[in-house]
Specification:
about 220 residues, mainly alpha, 9 helices, single chain
Length: about 220
């Protein structure tokens, strides 16, 4: 049972800094400028539902996809780590990429942005998908998959709350606070990405087949 709660907490800690709903809030406000609060909440709700569906699909089908393309778990960890590090570096340098994935541009009122660009690629972009697939290596049985799904749902609820209250959040934090928070999140994301790379390299270095091939090469 301890492993069950560990997976839930790990999923939340792994996904929340990458999705970073607080950094998405200003862009969400810009895209829904002129829309009533009720419609904004509806968009936030549907985008979070779409996010859960996308990430759960990759969680369940991730192993099949990797098997089909011959991709190993360490390879996914390293590739996902490189991608996550790139996202974090972009947030640290102040570039608008990865974390929010949205450009502040005028949009026609009542445009349905729930699936794109909110759910994909903002809330469930390449970084969060890579992290979700990486968690499949920690799942031993169906109960572990349920724990990861619950973690995804918790993250979705946090996103919904922040986006629903985005007007107040941005007003309270302010632009300076938003920039500072984005850089703090960026640093955490870089740390998570580097740890993914380290775990992948360790898995490669301790792979029995690789060690056997090296031993056979040294002693033909």
């Amino acid at each position: 049972m301890f492993h069950f709660w560990q997976l839930i907490l790990g999923t939340v800690i792994g996904l929340l800094p990458i999705i970073n709903p607080i950094a998405v809030a200003p862009a969400f406000l810009a895209l829904t400028e002129g829309d009533p609060d009720g419609y904004r909440r509806e968009l936030a709700r549907r985008s979070c539902v779409y996010m859960v569906a996308i990430l759960v699909s990759f969680l369940i089908g991730g192993t099949f996809i990797m098997t089909f393309f011959g991709i190993s778990i360490p390879g996914v960890r390293i590739a996902g780590g490189l991608l996550v590090v790139g996202i974090g570096m972009g947030m640290l340098s102040g570039r608008d990429e990865g974390g929010s994935g949205l450009q502040r541009r005028p949009e026609a009122p009542r445009r349905d942005i729930a699936f794109s660009p909110l759910a994909m690629p903002t809330l469930s972009g390449p970084g969060s998908i890579a992290v979700t697939i990486g968690f499949t290596s920690l799942a031993r049985d169906w109960l572990d998959y349920i724990a990861i799904m619950l973690g995804i749902v918790v993250v979705a609820l946090a996103n919904y709350i922040v986006l629903s209250l985005s007007t107040r959040v941005v007003r309270v934090i302010g632009q300076t606070g938003m920039r500072a928070l984005t850089r703090i999140m960026g640093f955490l994301i870089v740390c998570i990405g580097i740890q993914f790379i380290v775990n992948g390299l360790i898995a490669f270095a301790t792979d029995p087949d690789l060690l056997r091939a090296i031993r056979d090469g040294l002693h033909p």
